Amino acid sequence: MIAVKDIAYVRYQATDLDTMEAFLLDFGLHRAARTDQALYMRACGEAHHVHITERGKCNRILGFGLLSQSADDLDNLGEHLGLPVENNPEPGGGRRVRLTDPAGFIVDVIHGQATLPHLPHREPMQMNPASGRSRLGKVIRLKPQPSNIMRLGHVALLVPDFRKCFEFYRDVLGFRASDSYYAGPPENMIGAFAHCGLGANYTDHHTVALIAAPDGVARLDHSAFEVLDLDDVMQGGEYLKSHGHTHAWGVGRHIQGSQLFDYWRDPFGNKVEHWTDGDLVNDDTPVGHAPISNDAFSQWGPPLLPEFFK
Fold first, then answer.
1. Which pLDDT score is estimated for 307?
2. Strand intervals (E) in the chain
3. What whole-number percentage of the chain has pLDDT above 70?
4. Model pTM above 0.90
5. How far apart are CA 267 and CA 17, in angstroms?
6. CA distance linking residue 151 with residue 157, whole number of Å
7. What residues in the chain have per-residue pLDDT under 70?
8. What is the pLDDT of residue 108?
9. What is the pLDDT of residue 48?
10. At what angle do helices 230-242 and 17-27 cross, to 10 degrees?
11. What is the pLDDT of residue 173?
12. Angle, vertex CA 49, rays to CA 45 and CA 55, nearest 5
């Protein structure tokens, strides 16, 4: 129907906004806006916010936002789905179509949201590999601090009906598979890493990952935030560890997507990822198809323990 161009934000509900904000500041985000009922956190990039927490009686994932390529696309989506195109009532404004996907997640497709000036940050580190050395006469000296989060990169969703969800994201929002998983025979596809279908233009290996929920319960597995470089992954992890936060898995390098990754849990149990150095693909990039197993998630890194999936 349309092809969205990127992810905008992820939306959680939590019982304590102060506790969430304190963690997110340590994680590397910055406050963009706050009301009595919601917290909006930004990255260093121009997006008004990339993480929303709504105050509520329980802790849960609500959904996420996606960016429409144009106002016309947003109007066409609303007409196709029989949903209103409304003024976005949240900080940053713009217009949105709010829909519910087949798994029950709230998905805002948004256009015209305000942007903010970039926040200051260091440049990515120059490396001196065995060949092609470029850091000449310069040293690296880092001070303890949170990661420099540049943007939200993707969400990974566990869904009760994988096929129905994949077809929805493909046919309604224009996503295309970059890699997929199967269980048993190869035709039994149970997971897909999907990129925004932007034709020949290169984009992230995946903006939405969909995997069949083993217990049939829909949930967000994790949201993932891009940082500057490997030093930023490691430095941010050391900062989180020194402040008593809970580590989930990493550091390692994924197979599908190739990202260097490190996973943490916020105070409410949600998994959040720092990553850097991911693959870029377009609609002509060959689609991978691999069997799913615990060994299918990383090329190197620590063992993947069962509690990671809880």
1. 85
2. 6-14, 30-34, 38-42, 51-55, 60-67, 86-87, 95-100, 106-111, 149-159, 175-182, 189-196, 203-204, 208-212, 219-227, 246-254, 260-265, 271-276, 280-281, 288-291, 298-300
3. 100
4. yes
5. 11
6. 19
7. none
8. 98
9. 98
10. 140
11. 98
12. 155
Q: Residue 237: which residues within 8 A CB-CB, separation 6 or more?
A: 147, 247, 250, 251, 262, 264, 274
Token pair of 38 as six digits: 């919601």
The DSSP call for residue 296 is G
Please report the sign of the dihedral spanned by the C-alpha atoms of residue 305, residue 223, residue 16, residue 28: positive
* Residue recorded with tokens 């409304």: 86
Whether 290 contacts 242, CB under 8 Å: no
What distance lies between CA 98 and its chain's CA centroid?
19
Nearest one of 178, 171, 168 to 282, comparing CA atoms: 178
Distance CA 67, CA 63 (A): 14
| Residue 282 token pair | 């377009």
Question: Which alpha helices (DSSP H) does the chain contain, by range?
Answer: 17-27, 71-81, 162-171, 230-242
Q: Rounded to an integer, what distance in angstroms lies between the CA atom of residue 227 and that of residue 110?
A: 24
Residue 183 is predicted with a pLDDT of: 94
- What is residue 294's predicted lDDT score, i.e. its pLDDT? 78
Instruction: For residue 136, count other CB atoms closer than 10 A to its CB.
Output: 7
Are 40 and 107 contacting, i.e. CB atoms less than 8 angstroms apart?
no
At residue 178, the pLDDT reads: 98
- Between CA 194 and CA 210 the distance in angstroms is 8
The H-assigned helical ranges of 101-248 are: 162-171, 230-242
Which pLDDT score, from 0 to 100, does residue 96 have?
Answer: 98
Side chain identity at residue 117, one-letter code: P
Residues counted in the chain: 310
Q: What is the pLDDT of residue 187?
A: 95
Nearest to 201 by CA among 1, 6, 50: 6
pLDDT on residue 137: 95
Residue 47 · residue 30 · CB < 8 Å: no
Q: How far apart are CA 277 and CA 129, in angstroms?
A: 16
